[in-house]
Amino acid sequence: MSSTEQRLQDLRNRKARSEAGGGQARVDAQHNRGKMTARERMEMLLDDGSFQEIDALVEHRCRDFNMDANIIPGDGVVTGHGTINGREVFAFAQDFTVYGGSLGEMHGLKICKVLDMALKTGRPVIGMNDSGGARIQEGVASLGSYAEIFFRNVRASGVVPQISVIMGPCAGGAVYSPAITDFVIMVDQTAHMFITGPEVIKTVTNEVVTFEDLGGAMTHGSKSGVSHFTANDDEGAILLARELTDLLPQNNLERPPDKKTSDPIDRSCDALDSIIPDVATKPYDVLDVISEILDDGAFLEVQADWAQNIVIGFGHLGSHTVGVVANQPKVLAGCLDIDASDKAARFVRFCDAFNIPIITLEDVPGFLPGTNQEWGGIIRHGAKLLYAFAEATVPKLTVILRKAYGGAYDVMSSKHIRGDYNVAWPTGELAVMGADGAVEIIHKRRIAHARNAEQERARLTEDFNEKFANPYKAAALGYLDDVIEPNETRRRLARALEMLLDKEELRPARKHGNIPL
Q1: Which of 379, 331, 366 has the alpha carbon at shortest distance from 437?
Q2: What is the DSSP letter of 221?
């Protein structure tokens, strides 16, 4: 064998060792847990044959605790770039078969390199997390690499989309990188996120809790709001990441990609003419309204199981990607509360950062009353949503379906905070509050002194409804651009969106605003 052949064989052996990860026994153990390996995940995420690996031969530099005798090329994370449906992305996948996927100095710096290259080239980043946490043997060096990743996550925020897919354990400081990214996808039963584990909690607070109840996918999807999507398995999570990437621009200087559709822009939404119940207190499902308006009825709902009184998600209108924010009358009558305000505010800011027009469907009786809400800071949290809508400069289109009461009317992308196209259905009610409450306040004495209080209350309520429980006063003042028939909602929104796509709106120069966090 020639010298050149020997060198080539040496290279192949080194690459093969890196690709073998922690060895067949650990690979088998990973499969037995129902989990794919890091390389299998990477191959599934990216288009066939498109993966180009970076830093396959990186090794850790730790020489303590016998680590010098246990060196595996790649250092427990697979990094590189490839394409998703032909569009370039950067990605990394932690390898649980190597040191339990623990993050040491070089492992972290590999991820940092991917983030740096994504920022330089304007490409999204998808991270697949499956790690036991910081590598204890490397001490502060591993903590330093975590912080280097966090810093880059923050620098990339609002510049390139960042998606985290949690496919195993993610504990301690490791949780903060996914928390900074734009979207978190968790795999049910195998993914767990928490700051401190069940054992520490039992020791400190004497609470007994399982891994799943503390930090499982269902917990973070429905109770904490940390997770945006829940998948049944690794494959489902990866397909979700691909679908999400397809909807988004590659960076903040681009528009989202269009998606061809055969659904006519001028399609009549006849089902919407009868969707609002005759009884004002009766609920309906706003998801039916959304699917009727969007192209092909397709809607990717975000955080579907958390703060269900508001609905957020992505779809297309006239082939263009749009973000949708909609009050959900089926839950808490569509009131805004602390969680709903947080959920919608962050989504609005994401859409604004990445040039995604926002469609707001409004049916809101106000902010949720109660001591828990007031003491929990509903003023501050509600202000986040107000701030987000007011700050956004992307095209903003609002349809008032039914109720638009009080401060919640202002908050939900009203004309006053620079909504671009604001319309209402004939069922719209724009007022400070509902008729019953308003009459009790305005005509308290008159009702008290009336011969027949109930008759007088009914007469005054009917009078109030005639004057204010409709959209025409607001239309007369120019607060609405039009009152439209429900069946023409899709056509009118699509036409307005086309008109607004080249919108430019300048704001005062500043370092950044001070959103009421």
Answers
A1: 366
A2: I
Strands, E, within 32-106: which ranges? Answer: 52-54, 77-84, 87-94
Neighbour count for residue 324 (Cβ, 10 Å): 27
Choose the catalytic residue: 191, 241, 408, 438. Answer: 408
The answer to whether 204 touches 211, Cβ cutoff 8 Å, is: no
Task: Give which of 436, 430, 402, 366 is closest to 280, Cα–Cα.
Answer: 402
Same domain, 463 and 390: no
pLDDT 10s digits, 380-434: 999 999 999 999 999 999 999 999 999 999 999 999 999 999 999 999 999 877 7
Has 407 been annotated as catalytic? yes
Tell me, yes or no, whether 238 and 195 share the same domain.
yes
Domain-located, residue 423: yes
- Separation between Cα atoms, residue 432 and residue 482, nearest integer Å: 20
Statement to judge: residues 62 and 176 lie in one domain: yes
Average pLDDT over residues 73-85: 93
Number of domains in the chain: 3
CA torsion sign for 144, 149, 150, 151 is positive
Query: What is the domain-level CATH number for residue 300?
Result: 3.90.226.10
In a domain, 258, yes or no: no
pLDDT bucket at 24, cuts 50 / 70 / 90: very high
pLDDT confidence of 100, banded at 50, 70, 90?
confident
Active site (annotated) includes residue 408? yes
Last residue of one domain, picked from the residues 214, 232, 247: 247
On whether both 449 and 477 belong to a single domain, the answer is: no
315 is annotated as an active-site residue = no
Asked whether residue 507 is domain-assigned, the answer is no
Does 66 share its domain with 146?
Answer: yes
Percent of the chain with pLDDT over 90: 77
Residue 511 lies in a domain: no
Chain-wide mean pLDDT for the chain? 93
Residue 173 annotated in active site:
yes
Q: How confident is the model at residue 280 (pLDDT cuts 50, 70, 90)?
A: confident
Task: Give me the catalytic one of 197, 407, 437, 450.
Answer: 407
Contact status, residue 419 vs residue 393, Cβ threshold 8 Å: no
> What pTM, to 2 d.p., does this model score?
0.94
**Widest CA span in the chain:** 112
Separation of alpha carbons 358 and 421, rounded Å: 11
Q: Are residues 319 and 450 in the same domain?
A: no
Domain ranges, residue 455? 435-468
For residue 462 the two structure tokens come to 């009917």
Residue spans of alpha helices (H) in 157-295: 176-180, 198-205, 211-215, 217-219, 234-247, 286-293
174 and 284 co-located in one domain: no
Q: One of 76, 80, 172, 313 is an active-site residue; which one?
A: 172
Residues 175, 188 within the same domain:
yes
DSSP per-residue codes, 402-418: EEEEHHHHHHTT-GGGT
Residue type, 337: D
Which residue of the set 139, 158, 173, 236 is catalytic?
Answer: 173
For residue 141, give the nearest of 107, 177, 176 by alpha carbon.
107
